[in-house]
Write a structure and sequence with these properties.
The chain is α+β, with helices and mostly antiparallel strands. It folds into 4 domains: 3-64, OB fold (Dihydrolipoamide Acetyltransferase, E2P) (Beta Barrel), CATH 2.40.50.330; 76-137, OB fold (Dihydrolipoamide Acetyltransferase, E2P), CATH 2.40.50.140; 148-213, Nucleic acid-binding proteins (OB fold (Dihydrolipoamide Acetyltransferase, E2P)), CATH 2.40.50; 218-287, Orthogonal Bundle (Arc Repressor Mutant, subunit A). 16% of the residues lie in helices and 37% in strands. It is built from 4 helices and 18 strands. A hairpin with a 4-residue loop joins strand 2 (22-26) and strand 3. The protein is elongated and about 85 Å long. 27% of the residues are buried.
């Protein structure tokens, strides 16, 4: 098989000859360089060794004795190490060269692109010019590595990585090996592709996949929402032009809360004697006499 067919794969080659800067390996028809920086153990001419074939920055086929877990057709989890808005994101698969996940394979909105240290489940693909690119796992691939959840797992806390994003929701693969969906109403903001998130199971579907909520439980949410309102009041010297009469869209724009959540949290703060309302404004209680 020609070496071009081995790009992105692990293959066995013969050590043909030594050079000042490394070794030339051969498949019997074509040679490829194994640079001395990529030699991981002592080798000799005539020996057969396993190497990973890739293309360097100059477009030349080259070899490394560092054998990555992620190769063409073989999937694995890998971290993002760099983001280039013009190109896409670069992924560390374990060799000296980082691999590109092109912008054409990323979400349309850059705000949900992976950032450095996010984790994605990927394989490699090779284009017609022999260039290697990263390829994201499809829904079917994630399904193939998932197991089915049982009803006893309802309301269980989970964490995992986002493997697909869309306006209607996000798809997650959990640390327990479950495949799940997060509806847009079950998240306060859209998580990034590859982001690690914490949530809870709110439904187990017939096929064994799960529905997940990233929203806190009601009591936790009430405390969190109250803190959001208090922090905003404190940033404005204890007064804000929002009350339980404010328009839902104004509340959503400012606090990323629904009108109902805002009213519940505000009601709690008023019941606890921390804030009061007057003429459409809300004030921290200590400022009442001012």
């Amino acid at each position: 098989m020609a070496l071009i067919d081995e790009i992105g794969k692990i293959t066995e080659l013969l050590v043909s000859r030594e050079a000042a800067f490394g070794y030339f390996l051969t498949d019997g028809e074509e040679d490829v360089l194994l640079h001395k920086n990529e030699v991981k153990e002592e080798i000799t001419e005539g020996q057969k060794i396993s190497v990973f074939i890739y293309v360097d920055s100059e477009g030349r086929k080259t070899a490394t004795m560092t054998l990555p877990e992620i190769t063409v057709g073989v999937y694995g989890w890998a971290k993002v190490v760099d983001v280039n808005p013009e190109l896409g994101v670069f992924i560390d698969i374990g060799i000296s060269k980082d691999m590109l996940l092109g912008k054409e394979d990323l979400p349309v909105h850059e705000r949900v692109w992976p950032t450095v240290d996010d984790t994605v489940y990927v394989t490699l693909r090779v284009n017609r010019n022999g260039r290697i690119y990263v390829k994201l796992a499809t829904d079917q691939v994630i399904a193939s590595i998932s197991h089915k959840a049982g009803r006893e797992e309802l309301n269980k806390d989970i964490h995992g990585f986002i493997y697909r994003t869309a306006k209607v929701g996000s798809w997650i693969y959990t640390a327990d090996g479950l495949k799940g969906f997060i509806h847009e109403t079950e998240r306060r903001q859209e998580p990034r592709l590859g982001e690690k998130v914490n949530g809870r199971i709110i439904d187990v579907k017939q096929d064994g996949s799960i529905n997940v909520s990233l929203n806190p439980r009601k009591q936790e949410a009430l405390l969190d929402d109250s803190e959001i309102i208090l922090n905003y009041l404190q940033s404005r010297n204890g007064a804000m032009p929002y009350s339980d009469k404010s328009a839902p869209e104004d509340i959503k724009d400012r606090f990323q809360l629904s009108k109902a959540s805002f009213k519940r949290a505000l009601g709690r703060l008023m019941k606890d004697g921390k804030v009061y309302q007057k003429e459409g404004w809300t004030y921290i209680k200590e400022n009442e006499s001012k």
